[in-house]
Amino acid sequence: MQNPTKPTKGNEIETTKSGSQWTETALSRLASGTGIALFGRIFGRGFLIVGQILIARFLGPEAFGLYAIGWTMLQMGGTIAPLGLDKAAIQYATRYWQLDLAGLKGTIFQSLGLSTASGSIMALLLCLAAFPIAHDFFQNPDMTQVIRWFAPAFALISVTRVIAATTRVTQTMKYATTLEDVLPSVASLVLFIALYLLGFQLTAALGSVLTAYLLSFILGIFFLKRLFPEVFSRYPKATWMVREIMSFSLPTWLAGAFTMFIIWVNRLLVGVFRPEADVGIYQASSQISLLFALILSAITYVFSPMIANLFHRGKRHELQELFVISTKWGLYLSLPVFIIVITAPRELLTVLFGQIYQVGAPILFILAIGQLVNVASGSVGWMLMMTGHHIKWFWTTTAMLISSVIINIILTPQIGLMGAATATSLAVCSLYIIGLVQVRRHLGFWPYDKRYRKMLLASILSVGVVIASRYLNLDNPALRLTLTATLAIGVFGIGLFILGFDEEEGVILRHIGRRMFRNVTQEKHVNR
Q1: Range of 484's domain?
Q2: 3-state SS of the chain: helix, strand, coil percent to 5?
Q3: Closest CA to 245 of 104, 124, 359, 122
Q4: Phi-psi region of 416 (alpha: psi -120 to 50; beta: other; left: phi over 0)
């Protein structure tokens, strides 16, 4: 049987030439979009972590634990509320953009309408059920206030995520990054500081989050009108697509929700079986481990609409190549971070959150392993969902979520936070390894080849140098962390440079160089 990812002999030369030109364009787009998304996510996550550090330090572990439970519910609800309509927006808007205005209007307006309804219903139900959830599930009356403050944000997140997903169809990442990462984190931090200085305590943390999401929603409407002005014209009438959209969105919604639940449900179960102070420690450790998911999501931000576009156009060879390259660059960005985490977990927690949180170092180590497997598998979930295999991904995530809950319930009461971390990491590893096998089986794609060997060598060299540096016996945790980070990143980067760059890496680096040169030239021109 002929390999679908390779050109046939008759058109090999022509395909290679046009494919090489197309791939270079796609790589430039991938590099540019990933750079914007990654910068925005790191910038936003940085402000988020700073905000959570301030809340942890100013309010203490118990109040921070209450906030962490509510914030976790909000993140999980933000995945549930859109009903997968954010993914449907990418799937169908990519297909109709610049080709079928009626189809594009139908996709955007019906996705927004459905997500508004679902988010509002969820917010109302959560407000009504706040008291029994707090008393019967968490057995803590103080959770009632937290749940009711966060409930309206469910509706705002639902619509904003669909808006952000729609803007990604243009493969211009700055709009979605601003709406989902930068503005909520920056606004909530600034508002928390202002409210705290006015004398508010836990209410400052809760109110700042709700207001930040309201600002993101308002800005999202403005972005939508700017990017798709033709959609707001009177004619042509929008195509009725509710049934088609929902048949795609519901399975992908459940798959996406279950994937997030695997990562987040452990915090809720820790809240059930352990005291609030333990929840705060677990929250601090898990926040750092999610840096890996942040890196992968920045790449997926750009890659997901490209998957839909390439698959619909039958460009399997280009899709396979971008799958390999995006996975490899995800590991390039993640491995130095992983080396820092596994060699200096106590220093990370002490410097970022305070000395009381350093007991979470083993938890951070275990969770980081699972997240590295997530990055190493590439965008397998999106590959399956955007190529018509979303039902298979749904059943996989369902099985792994059930396994995660069962193992968490067994281990958390027995061995505490270590049990929760172990159960979650096992579920995450299993999910993405199975997803990798499914992509191989159903699409014939595999993200690994001989180009990964130099990455392995650079990693081994970096780990060796970092471990050797521990014999310096520096007393200050900040100095030890700084030295570890410098060596991990520097030795890894130098190792890759010595071993040489691949062809597509040269394309990406040239693109970055051109962008930097263009920015410097423009700055000099402005100064003149």
Answers
A1: 22-515
A2: 85, 0, 15
A3: 104
A4: left
Give the single-character DSSP code of 236.
Answer: S
70 belongs to a structural domain: yes
Nearest CA to 73 out of 177, 179, 146 is that of: 146
pTM summary value: 0.72
State the SS3 of 436-471: HHHHHHHHCCCCCCHHHHHHHHHHHHHHHHHHHHHH
Residue 344 lies in a domain: yes
Query: Which one-letter amino acid corresponds to residue 102?
Result: A
Q: Is residue 426 part of a domain?
A: yes
Tell me the Cα Rg of the chain.
Answer: 23
Query: What is the spatial distance between Cα 292 and Cα 374, in angstroms, rounded to a whole number?
Result: 8
DSSP state of 274: S
- From the list 197, 192, 198, the residue with the least C-alpha distance to 67 is 192
Query: Is residue 521 a part of any domain in this protein?
Result: no
Please give the structure tokens belonging to residue 178: 């601003």
Tens of pLDDT, residue by residue, the chain (528 residues): 334 333 333 333 233 334 445 556 666 666 666 667 777 777 887 888 788 888 888 888 888 888 888 888 888 788 788 888 988 888 888 888 878 888 888 889 999 999 999 999 999 998 899 899 888 888 888 888 888 998 999 999 999 999 999 998 887 788 888 998 899 999 999 999 999 898 888 888 899 999 999 999 999 999 999 999 888 888 888 888 888 889 888 898 888 878 888 887 887 788 788 877 777 888 888 878 877 877 787 778 777 888 887 887 788 888 888 888 889 888 988 999 999 999 988 888 888 888 888 888 899 999 999 999 999 998 899 899 988 898 999 999 999 999 999 998 999 888 888 888 999 999 999 999 999 999 999 999 998 888 888 889 999 999 999 999 888 877 888 888 999 999 999 999 999 888 887 766 666 666 555 554 454 444 444 445
Q: Which two tokens stand for residue 383?
A: 């590959």
Alpha-carbon distance of 229 to 197, in angstroms, equals 42
Gap between the Cα atoms of 420 and 425, Å rounded: 9
d(CA 420, CA 400): 15
Give the total number of structural domains in the chain: 1
Q: Do the Cβ atoms of 336 and 489 come closer than 8 Å?
A: yes
- Taking alpha carbons only, the member of 456, 386, 380, 324 closest to residue 30 is 324
Distance of alpha carbon 387 from alpha carbon 443, whole angstroms: 8
C-alpha 149/C-alpha 16 separation (Å) is 57
Q: Are the beta carbons of 382 and 307 closer than 8 angstroms?
A: yes
